[in-house]
Amino acid sequence: MSGTLNKVMLIGHLGDEVKMHYFDDKNCVGRFPLATNETYTNKQTNERVSNTEWHNIVVRNKAAEICEKYLSKGDKVYIEGRIKTRKWTDDKGMERYSTEIQCNDFTFLTNKNEQQQGQQISSTQQVPHQQAQSNTSETNDDLPF
């Protein structure tokens, strides 16, 4: 072992859709921004302060295709990977640097099916539940509590 470690674990929300880039040799790269938030109380003003940090996420090949298919803006996801800074030259010939998270593992934390079913179940059960509560309070007036 080399005695060093480069590992990143993030849980955040997608700031945009996954942007795909395909190569001639059937490989591909997906890129998307991920927002993480830090919230704390300012001791001088007692105000809640929230800071958002943006991370550039890079996924490759099959993982990129899965992310493109199932993730959309606003979804919550767990990302595990490593930090990589790449050097490139812009249109004006200036050397530029970009720090990215090279993703090697991810877990979707926003489940589309549960979210849709949950919304349908809660919206259909709300009305009967409210009616049932109002009926029981009218019929049980003699209860001591």
How does this structure look, described?
- The protein has 145 residues and is an alpha+beta fold.
- Helix content is 26%, strand content 46%.
- It contains two helices and six strands.
- It has helices spanning 61-70, 112-139; strands spanning 8-14, 19-22, 28-41, 48-60, 76-89, 95-108.
- It has a five-stranded mixed beta barrel with strand order 1-3-4-6-5.
- A hairpin with a 6-residue loop joins strand 3 and strand 4 (48-60).
- The radius of gyration is 24 Å and the shape is globular.
- The N and C termini lie far apart (68 Å).
- Mean pLDDT is 82; it is low at 117-141.
Please outline the helices and strands.
Layout: E1 8-14, E2 19-22, E3 28-41, E4 48-60, H1 61-70, E5 76-89, E6 95-108, H2 112-139
Parallel strand pairs: 4-6
Antiparallel strand pairs: 1-3, 1-5, 2-3, 3-4, 5-6
Percentage of β-strand residues: over 45%
> What's the end-to-end separation, in Å?
68 Å
Task: Write the element-wise H/E pattern from the N-terminal end onward.
Answer: EEEEHEEH
Q: Write down the overall geometry.
A: globular
Q: How would you write the strand order of the largest sheet?
A: 1-3-4-6-5
Q: Enumerate the spans where pLDDT stays under 50 for 5 or more consecutive residues.
A: 117-141
Oligomer: single chain
